[in-house]
Design a protein that fits this description.
CATH class of the largest domain: Alpha Beta
Strand order of the largest sheet: 2-10-9-8-5-3-4
Distance between the termini: 42 Å
Number of domains: 2
Bound molecules: pyridoxal-5'-phosphate
Strand content: 15-25%
Number of helices: 13
Structural class: alpha/beta
Radius of gyration: 21 Å
Largest sheet: 7 strands, mixed
Number of strands: 14
Length: about 400
Amino acid sequence: MSSFPRPELGEPYLLTPGPLTTSYTVKQAMLRDWGSWDGDFRAMTAELRARLLDLLGDGKAAYDCVPMQGSGTFAVEAMLTSMIPPSGKALVLANGAYGKRAVQTLAYAGRAHVVLDKGDYLPPRGAEVAQILADDPAITHVVAIHCETSSGILNPLAEISKATAAAGRKLLIDSMSAFGAIPLQPGDYTFEALVSSANKCIEGVPGFGFVLARKTALIESKGNCPSLSLDLHAQWDAMEKTGQWRFTPPTHVVAAFLQALQEHEAEGGVAGRGARYARNRDVMVSGMRALGFETLLSDEWLSPIIVTFFCPADPKFDFGRFYNLMKDQGFIIYPGKLTEAESFRIGCIGRMDASVMQAVVAAAQMALDKLGVSSAAPPAKAVAARMAQTA
Ligand SMILES: *Cc1c(COP(=O)(O)O)cnc(C)c1O
């Protein structure tokens, strides 16, 4: 039996990149009401900000934490439109849906930008970034996606950070689906700000995101943001002065998140959380490969967050039916987001361990049997296209 049992009968595991499966104690933390103005809740906000800063390690003194209501995208938009001034220019490193969304956000806000678009799943490399920055002195900021959740690729942030710093530009990181499970500290990486949210690797429930930014960058961001509610400087300034969120805070979500942060610490922090997710991935990927499934990415680029598999070539395979057969067995999987090949995704994050992942593989085997699919091998042309691109 799993050490992470399903708390309530009939509640499926979410093998998705957030919202994800949370612990019973995280859900339980929401069973009371808090006044947003009251000192008790202000203390909770202060604790949340301090604990998130602690995750930055020794370099945390130069940074501050600004939570922002809404889903992760709201916090990304707050970071991009507040940190990049109207006179700035961004280089966006895109290899999937979240890179594209960053581009769209900059277009909405009227910020000058160029894009290095690597398609569905190829990594942006440090040398490419260095070249683009050398050729275009107008670029002030580089926007990178840490784990691009649409393919599950773990982008080479170390190279990107080095190239950006060497060129004297500023790095903004969407670490939404990685922060809390993959190390990202100012001692190892040079960055202006990073953004993540409550419902990813910290294993809280959805309702806010947060930006960890250099204090100098926060000071400089005053007056940049074209939006009232997403103005990071205004939110920071109000929080510093009053200890409160500017507008109605997601009180229950904050309470759940504090519990989630305690559980994160008890598990051994970023290292402990990352190790469990990596084991989840390894058990799940080797089990799925044994059934004939193939991953989109080679092992070098597989994140411990979410994994993309090609759909089997067998005409008896139907994703909608496969999805329902998995759900009947208690597992919610995730459709794929590739433009060229049929695919689906299985997440490794959330309150689940290796024994749950073994059960996922057994459920996939059962689902294939019910569909009458004898081999889960993908179409040869999907694999060939991947090989040609990554060669
Ligand atoms: C989840 C996620 C986001 C935010 O998505 P929302 O649906 O707005 O929460 C942004 N970037 C990445 C890489 C993500 O995984």
